[in-house]
Write a structure and sequence with these properties.
Oligomer: single chain
Number of strands: 4
Strand order of the largest sheet: 1-2
Helix content: 40-55%
Largest sheet: 2 strands, antiparallel
Radius of gyration: 23 Å
Mean pLDDT: 86
Length: 216
């Protein structure tokens, strides 16, 4: 601990500039001295303003506390606030030996510079509604239902059309560009599955209510 304090504050502030938000939070929990140094950084205020998180109040007394409360929904590269699920969710992207939380725009930029393998994961080969394997050629209705892409999104790939269908390989590549890799596609599909299950549950509850009223 004494060796850490011997380092000049300017050096520590330089080190902090190269750390992501999650790394700063982890470092602030190591000791009280690090906590006091990290909490005093102006970076927390700039992140709070960028993500539209508001100002310190009774519940959160510092900008550090405000950012910590919404840390899982803040992009660590551009500091934008994203949603909890779906296309605009903040997702953990593995970069070399560590993970970084990225928004949709940052995921797309990262994917363009770090392409994934051309093979299609097994999780993307199944139909969301029937659970069966998708065919090698998909209609626009199947593409919209499984990947939430429209004909406008597929316009750059129009030369690969086969009749009125698109190859599954082309659809997955287009979805990777729009959602930022396989992890973005899986998040969109998972949110769609949750909506489908919620809709099924709602219909089931309505049927039970209608049956109850008919029996009465």
């Amino acid at each position: 601990m004494t060796h850490i304090k011997r380092l000049p504050c300017e050096l520590w502030y330089t080190i902090y500039l190269y750390l992501h938000l999650s790394d700063l939070v982890t470092l602030s929990r190591t000791c009280l001295w690090q906590y006091n140094c990290i909490v005093s950084l102006y970076q927390w205020k700039s992140v709070s303003i960028r993500a539209h998180l508001g100002h310190p109040k009774r519940k959160y007394r510092t900008y550090y506390d405000i950012v910590i409360s919404r840390l899982q929904r803040i992009c660590e590269l551009c500091f934008k606030r994203g949603k909890q699920k779906g296309k605009y969710a903040i997702l953990n992207i593995k970069v070399k030996d560590y993970s970084v939380r990225m928004c949709l725009e940052c995921r797309i930029t990262h994917y363009r510079h770090h392409r994934e393998s051309d093979s299609i994961p097994d999780t993307l080969r199944y139909d969301l509604y029937s659970g069966l394997l998708l065919s090698n050629y998909l209609s626009l209705h199947q593409i919209k239902a499984n990947f939430n892409l429209t004909s406008f999104d597929l316009f750059p790939f129009q030369h690969e059309m086969w009749g009125r269908t698109y190859p599954l390989y082309t659809v997955v590549n287009a979805a990777r560009l729009y959602y930022g890799g396989n992890i973005g596609i899986e998040e969109v599909r998972n949110s769609k599955i949750s909506r489908i299950n919620k809709l099924k549950w709602t219909r089931h509850q309505r049927r039970r209510i209608d049956t109850y009223h008919e029996d009465q």
